[in-house]
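Appendix B: complex inputs.
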Amino acid sequence: MGKLHDKLAQQIPGLREKVHSIIKEHGSTVISEVTVSQAFGGMRGVKGLVCDTSVVEPDQGLIIRGIPIGQLTQKLPEEIFYLLLTGALPDAQELASLQGDLRQRAAVPSYVWDVLKALPSDSHPMAMFSTAILAMERDSVFRRRYTEGLHKEEYWEAALDDSLTLLARLPQIAAGIYRMHAHKGNPLPSNPNLDWGGDYASMLHLEDPDGEFKNYIRLYLTLHCDHEGGNVSAFTCHTVGSALSDPFYAVSAGMNGLAGPLHGLANQEGLHFVLEIHKKYKGVPTDAQLSEYIRERLEDGRVIPGYGHAVLRVTDPRFTAFHEFGLRVCPDDEIFRIVDQLFRVTPEILKEHAKIKDPWPNVDAGSGALLYLFGLKEFGYYTVLFGVSRALGMCAQLVLNRALGTAITRPKSVSTPWIMQAISSSAKNVGRRMSCWKQSFTCQHSKEAGGNSSGNRPRVTASSWTTRKETRDPDQSSLHFWRLAAAPLSTSSRSCARCGNGSAATKSSSALTSAQNLPAFLPESTLNTGCTARSPHRPPKKRFIFLKQSTAPSEQ
Ligand code: AMX
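Resulting structure:
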């Protein structure tokens, strides 16, 4: 499997050691909370999954292994695959080795075409794509070796083997599906002299006199390659793979998620919107006409496709890359001019609506329009292109997860009655906490756990903590919560946590944190430094109730 395999074989022992020691030393550190809205709302924002291939920052967009995507636009998609997996771009030899490996594996077995031809001719291209990937599962090295008794330390090698085979075949399969879908004839053979993306573009067989279509497909495949681990397709692929289903099963499942209108289909909406404007104004409107059109659309309660984002708060750098490509290749084309004009006009109008958090263009504001210009006008096919690219990220994540022995995904679901019970217990306990907290503390140490300089009045009260929680600053609020929780524990246990004046059982912070399942990051100084108490320790009358124990009923 060439130099990529060798590099990973070198890196993986160190990665495993690092992850094992993080879990061993900090396994109980709290990194996220879950609210009722999040439980009902697609787990949005809950940090419960690790993905090292890429991150998406609100003010920067997609960052692959520390490199902003805007700096990778000149790289080939296969270079990006290498980067996603290893954290470094390949040198010339490493790239040649990977490309050679992909070429060797590129032949698509004839049974795949038989399966595709057997499908009804009006099947959706994404259904065809996912079916083709699933059909190739019969060739899975992972499944064969697993059945033979594969050692778990070697899972990643088998996953890499399957991933390379799958990725090598995708361009020909995807291009073949395009030709079948658009009634353009039989699939064309792969050209071994071309790179992965260039070969795909060439098999789509659209006019490309100056090679710009190939460049565009390369760029498209690079820009869509990965988007953290929590989006629908990546998370689906991750979950299926975590059951040790092989990469063909897992990537096929991920593609089914990508096929959804709320995920991979948005690019065609962006294009529809631009074409609608072009049709209405019989060409490019004036800025005033466009502004009016956008305002009317917003007044009708309709969204402006290609604008806004759940995470981003700046122009998506992937849009910038497509926009720059259009400015270079087709600045005078009417469709592209509307894309450009929308970029100038729309954000200022969206800014007038306070509820819209991100008035800037996302990746889908321009990508479809450029495909259209190159003659790829079958909208239903666009998600397949996205899928070819996103398979890079899915496969990279699968290989790394098998290397690190990531456990089978199994979050705990709860029922609506359970949530109702949790809400009512939480309301009762907030009341109790407040009444406990309002009692005076005579121990100087309550100052560090939230008291003021006189040592007998808490600076942070249960109610102020609740207010902070409502400001949606979960990290802050949980810190305050733990501080709140810690101080009364010591007093309710009839001891000062720092000096142990009273019961010895709560003398040290480690005893305290482990006994009460408090997070290990609770600063030692908060609980266990020298005592300077000015007055006798006096426990509060009521026993303190811990939020962690009381927010939810125990599992049934
Ligand atoms: N046009 C009009 N209204 C918009 C808007 C837009 N482009 N973007 C956001 N809003 C509205 C939302 O509909 C929401 O209204 P509501 O409170 O009445 O329901 C309000 O502003 C707050 O939304 P938000 O918090 O800013 O965004 P979000 O996380 O809820 O939604 C997104 C994000 C992308 C779905 C939304 O911006 C949108 O619908 N954009 C247009 C469609 C689009 O371009 N989709 C592709 C996204 C990129 C991708 O993931 N492929």
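The pocket of amidocarboxymethyldethia coenzyme *A is lined by residues 266, 298, 303-310, 355-358, 362, 364 (CB under 6 Å).
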